[in-house]
Design brief:
alpha+beta; OB fold (Dihydrolipoamide Acetyltransferase, E2P); DNA Methylphosphotriester Repair Domain; 5-stranded mixed beta barrel; 4-stranded mixed β-sheet; 6 helices; binds zinc ion
Length: 234
């Protein structure tokens, strides 16, 4: 649906008919060379896309931009690095190193979550992409250096992230090659929050029967996109 003028064009963005914009020739040129490659991949159901410079990598899922904003990678959870006297988790430093090599000092594209742009620590929640379009979180999950975690808030990248996780599990890549810590006979999952628990965890036992899912092993829970409870650490 397009209407052409002498020098410009008024056009409807195909998937967002409400967003009608009037474009002059200079704007069109700018759009073509700069904005289009940044905006188009986001589409209308995705969040806001921005091209930014990554100044520093904090760990496998958090970075600092040159403008000072902290970005927390959306849809994944990387193992902790040692901090505040805590020893960290296996592969935490490896995840940080791989993330650092991918993005530190580089221009990247971030797609900021529309539903939750900031978390409670004021970090920007976003999917992060290399300039070649690769999804950084997906690369880390595929290498077994992060888990795919939506906590029940799926978006357009959730399926890709879960597929990468299933692949990493089947190859025993990274964290998936570790022996399970104190395995249980079964685990309790919550189909709403997509978290799972050890059988004795009070958070798990509070799960309503409607949302309760029983997993015979933790890997079965991970293959379905469930993430471990922070309290009982299954
Ligand atoms: Zn728990």
């Amino acid at each position: 649906m397009k209407r052409y003028f002498l020098w410009g064009v008024s056009t409807m963005i195909p998937c967002c008919p409400s967003r009608q914009i009037l474009l002059g020739p200079a704007t069109l040129l700018a759009l073509f060379y700069f904005l289009v490659p940044v905006l188009l991949p986001a589409g209308c159901d995705g969040g806001t896309r921005q091209r930014v410079l990554c100044k520093y990598v904090i760990d496998g899922d958090t970075i600092i931009l040159s403008d000072g904003r902290r970005v927390r990678y959306q849809g994944i959870n990387a193992p902790e690095i040692p901090h505040d006297g805590q020893p960290g988790e296996p592969f935490g430093l490896r995840a940080k190193e791989v993330n650092r090599r991918l993005v530190q000092g580089k221009f990247i594209d971030i797609e900021i979550s529309r539903n939750q742009p900031l978390d409670r620590y004021n970090r920007v929640i976003a999917h992060v992409f290399l300039r070649n379009g690769k999804h950084v979180g997906e690369m880390l999950v595929r290498a077994g250096l992060a888990m795919a975690c939506t906590y029940g808030k799926q978006d357009r990248y959730s399926k890709r992230l879960l597929a990468a996780q299933r692949s990493a599990i089947s190859r025993k890549a990274g964290i998936w090659g570790l022996p399970p810590d104190r395995p249980e006979d079964y685990y309790i999952g919550n189909s709403r929050s997509l978290r799972f628990h050890r059988p004795w965890c009070k958070n798990g036992r509070q799960t309503s029967m409607k949302n309760r899912v029983i997993f015979k092993s933790r890997l079965k829970a991970f293959k379905e996109g469930y993430c471990p409870c922070r309290a009982c650490r299954p």
